[in-house]
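Two quick folds needed for the group meeting slides. Do the first one here.
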Amino acid sequence: MKFVPHKRAASWVCTALLGLSVLSSCQNDLLNVKPVTQLDAGVAFDTPSRVLAQVNGLYSYVKVGGLLGGRYQIYGDIRANDFINRTSNGVTGLSVWNHTLAETSANDVVSVWGNAYAAINQVNIFLAGLDANASKLAASPFPSDYATTVTNYRGEARLLRALCYYSMLQLYARPYIDGNGTRPGLPLRLAAETGLGNNDLARSTVAQVYDQIIQDLNFAEQSLPLRYSAAQGSIAVSTLNVTRAHRNTAIALKTRVYLTMGRYSDVITEANKLVPTAAPYAAASGVPNALNSSIVSVFTAPQETSESILSFPFTAQDPPGTQNQLAYYYLPTALGGNGEYGLNTSTNATTGGIVGNSAWLSTDARRTNFVVAASSTSSERFLAKYPTGSPYTDKAPVIRYSEVMLSLAEALARTTNSVDTRALALLNAVRMRSNPAIAATSTTPAIPSPMFVTTDFASATDFINAILLERRIEFLGEGIRNIDIMRLNATIPAKGTVSAITPSNPAYVWPIPSTELSVNNLMTRN
């Protein structure tokens, strides 16, 4: 595989990145992540601290601002109709919002692909290093029980690889439902590349890539620790259980993957490991992940409630990078952001956003706390879910417990083709969490009850639509919207002056970047 050398950070192994022939000046996170510390590969596995540093380096690659440290989540929302572009800034997703991406679009098409494969290759290099240094890891200075730690690290690495491949599928490949996974997917690179060559690799099918994702996540579930019980230097246990993968992380991600594939029985199987049959909703083992009583607390610093199953952290010394930060995009300038995207307040049935949807109650805590105006006289509305201005240290969310609950509710409704009572209870738990002040028996026409009952739905389809609407409200600004649209092969709605994108439109999936096409002779275009 062809490489372009980059200054590295946090990997502790002096190896080369996957080929990235073009990177925007605003996508330089891999050049500047701190601390910049390199070790020759020959000594990278000499001590436990060096091996741990490599594991931390894997997270640094995945949480880079141009990938899951911000931009990926942003792209997952601005493709749809809940946000309006305000700045016409080509660097901050204008072409994503407009659906005018090209193979040479450096800030998004090229950058996400390059960052994801760079992370995947670091995982492959690390796993190969563990194999090559097995005898070294079994002797001093490594403790006698270090084999368990190595197994844990393998689980973390494979989970991160699965997360990268899954994330890429949602942008660069057709939905699983389109052809039952037979459409072209991604080059499935599983070998460590540390030099030039091995560029040519054909695309595996969508199903084959998902098969690998499931294999990695199944391995991770069996290999990851149940929880972290000891601090890592200055990093507290509470932080580790949110920012490092554990067993529940693998299970939760499997519920998302299976839901995306339409394998609803498998969603139920996995979700049942975390979600009890009745309230209170909390995992029975491992990290006590649970539905937090306050959605506001979930996004209040340090954003480490038990609801956050996996989030990527940042500090002033390790920020997501220029023009990648969630708050920079969504907060108005008056509150410390740059107001790149405001909320779509239109109530038009065709081009309106979720803020203009009357089904989102005016008293809902998610509306009263996360939807803000730039000033008392402004009619514009912005998302304040990420409240921290410069240096933008809000954690980048990956998956929360409430998503597992709503995925389970949808899977139950679809497998039973009914207004399933357990699914209804799960939906109500998430919805009522943000509407506790309104009595369930309210008869005031202007304030409908947030507590659903079976008679509210004329059919299973109506019930499923209510679950999908709740997901749209609950995960606004967390990058889930594009996943939910594409997994159903639904039309991406129109917004403002931008037309809807039907599944048959070439713009429905992103183009394969020119950087890959130029070096991989077996690569095909979308």
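Then this one, please, same format:
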Amino acid sequence: MYGALLLQFAELCDKLTATPKKLEKRALIAEYLRGLSVDDAGRAALYLAGTPFAETDRRALNTGGSLLSRAVAEVSGADRTAMHAAYRRHGDLGAAAEDLLASRRDTPPELTLKNLEDSFDAIAAARAPAAKLPIILHLLRRAQPVEAKYILKLMLGGMRIGVKQSLVEEGIATAWNATPDAVRHAAMLAGSLPEVVAMAATNTLSAARMRLFHPLGVMLASPVASVDEAMKRFAEEVAAEEHAEPAADPPPLAKALIEDKYDGIRAQLHCGDPTQPRRVGLFSRSRQDLGETFPELIDAFAAMSEPAILDGEILAWNPVEARALPFTALQQRIGRKRVTAEMQKQIPVIFMAFDAVYLSGDLLHDLALAERRQRLEAFIAKHGGIARTSGSRGQAVLFSESEPQSDFPRLVLAPATHLRTAEQLDRAYDEARERGNEGVMVKALASTYQPGRRGLAWLKLKRGLATLDVVVTGVEFGHGKRAGVLSDYTFAVRDGDGLKNVGKAYSGLTDAEISELTRFFQQHTIEDFGGFRTVEPLKVLEVAFNNIMRSDRHKSGFALRFPRILSIRDDKPVEEIDTLTRVEEIYNAQPDKPIEQP
């Protein structure tokens, strides 16, 4: 046996779960890392952050809950009833496995962090579930219950120990007397916590250098629901930046840019590496590789010679009118392993760039947005013509009787204007919606680019489209801390004398409201299928949503996108809930609804 025991890592995770205090968590992490070899400390830092591989390592375990549940059942000998009961107690397969494997607690510990790393390497290399299962079984048979808990949590991508990567970075800094900013900066550049640990241990954090093709965190915007709220919060942000009192009326609007809020896929584009000609990286905000889904974008940017990392949005595109198609068009391409040439023609896509993070060897995140925007404009003016591939008729024809362009840019600069008045913002929102976009963004010209952070420097204004009064027809147990309560609600609207489901929501209610509803639905269950129950249609909810889509998921033919519960409407009888006709009216009134082919 060699290296740090996995049992000690698992015991640390239990301690981290038990303490809610950030400073105590940081101290525990630092003390643990400091006592390990550099190699083991690198592995532990990576696993504490909740990932089996570094950001720069594009491998994946590809082990879903079904495969892991099968492994737990085989190792523990638990039948389906026992598995279900254990999962319902915890809402987490890892914690359930700890219960089911309790008889192994007296087994001497033998697994090390290096053993776990080797197992992960083997699982990632095995292509089919049938090839992965023996490796997982061998690992779990050697594991103590608490070790199995965190092995499974890590494999499922949810450690749930109250630790984010930023806290691990602070722990690394404390362990080796570095500053958190230095560790965070090195982690952003290197994209590998094990490498950062090695640099911190040897006092060489300053040697970290930017690499293309490892995705950075994206800067996030805070939502606002009205122009007045946007004005107030933006004034607070500007005042905080200038260490002054918030401005009176009017707020300092001239210090902001306004852009459309697009309804696509947030993405980060990497291209132009001279050491790897024609290589292109396209990553989602969750750092997933999007290259297979949008191969024409990879082809379009392959000729780029200047190193760049651009932040933007992948949009389904009408090249004739140079405007975005609805997200529902783009959605047809998501999750496909193979995107055919015909589909590329039917649903053209572009990359709408609105920020530059890295250009020609310079990392730009510490520059103000005003400067980054200038550099982005110059880059696109110089290289935008390179990123062109043949267009097609496709859905674009539905928007125009004229012949579509045979060639159009795949790299487009997001239009932006200086914000001057509240009336201008109000008007800009309406115009953005008329163009089929979600709303508008307000961005402080002085704002630096803060990967993974959400603040007031960027605001997104998205007014609620409408609300519907619906009735709950089905309920499900939640996950995690909501595993023991019925917190996921399928709901319907009236259609003649019947009901038709239009969506499912699980956010918006307090824990007390969910507990009360759980008791109610338990008393009014029609059929209990274990995880899901059909219930009497008695409880009315008011729900909000982003928009309505055509969908085969429900018999109504519609589905609400991003529904959330606003209130429980005990004052409203089921006879007065909204109708399917009302749903269709809202759908048809949407400026961004897809044009339907006859």
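Slide caption for protein two: The chain is about 35% helix and 20% strand.
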